[in-house]
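User: I'm curious whether this sequence folds into something compact or stays loose and floppy. Could you predict its structure so I can see for myself?
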Amino acid sequence: LRTSQLSPICTSLVEEMEEEIGGFFVYNLENTCNYDIPSHASESLFDSRSDFDQERSEKKSKVDKIFSGDSYGMNHALRARRSLRITVKQRGSGTSGGGAPCPGNVMNEYLSLNTTLDALGVPDDMNFLNLDNGHGFDYTSDQTRVTYIYKKLIEAGKKVLIYEGDTDACGLQTPVIEDIFVPYFDNELKLKKEKWRPFTVDGKKGMGGYVINWAQGQVQFVSIRAAGHLVPINRPIAASVMLNSFLRDEELPRYSTP
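Assistant: Here's the prediction. I'll summarize afterward.
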């Protein structure tokens, strides 16, 4: 809405709306995290930087013993992650949606480790930055629709899983995605559809979200309850159940009514 094309009246209304809405996270409307956490937040738990370094070194040596003799890149990254998770104890305030704790500064700390960058294949002389929509970032689509990709996959006999979080506010939440793919699979590909149903994480009443199946489960549209743009962060168990069911060619656990 912030463009030079707005009239003064419209600009005033947009500013009023912004004041009334207050703060919110566009990738998850249920997110209440405070991301204004300084670098090395965990240092506040120790009397000095040297105490922090000593604690981190001692914990790291214990983790290293677990992976001794294993020099593969991904396990290097796993080692660094476990070491950091042990030492960086402070989390952000609030929740990141679905009751998941706020990550604090852990991800930035993790991505700043040389071991992590080495596992990701980042050259030593490269200035690695973890950001989104940075200066100069330009994505220009040359396609009006990309649904033809799914048609090719289905015709080739591949399984298709489309999923999203229902509290994502950046245009990829359930209603928007559902309005695109449901008519496409129903009307254009004319696939036989099973009606929208709830699924659970435990086969009982632990709600994971909802699912629509086409072609006897070859195509699935899954909506994860209380998850935003990054489903595994907000609902890790539901995400795991969904992916495991997909990879094992099993249906998502059904809801057991009382």
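Summary: The first strand starts at residue 92 and ends at 95. Residues 37-49, 66-78, 84-91 have pLDDT under 50 and may be disordered.
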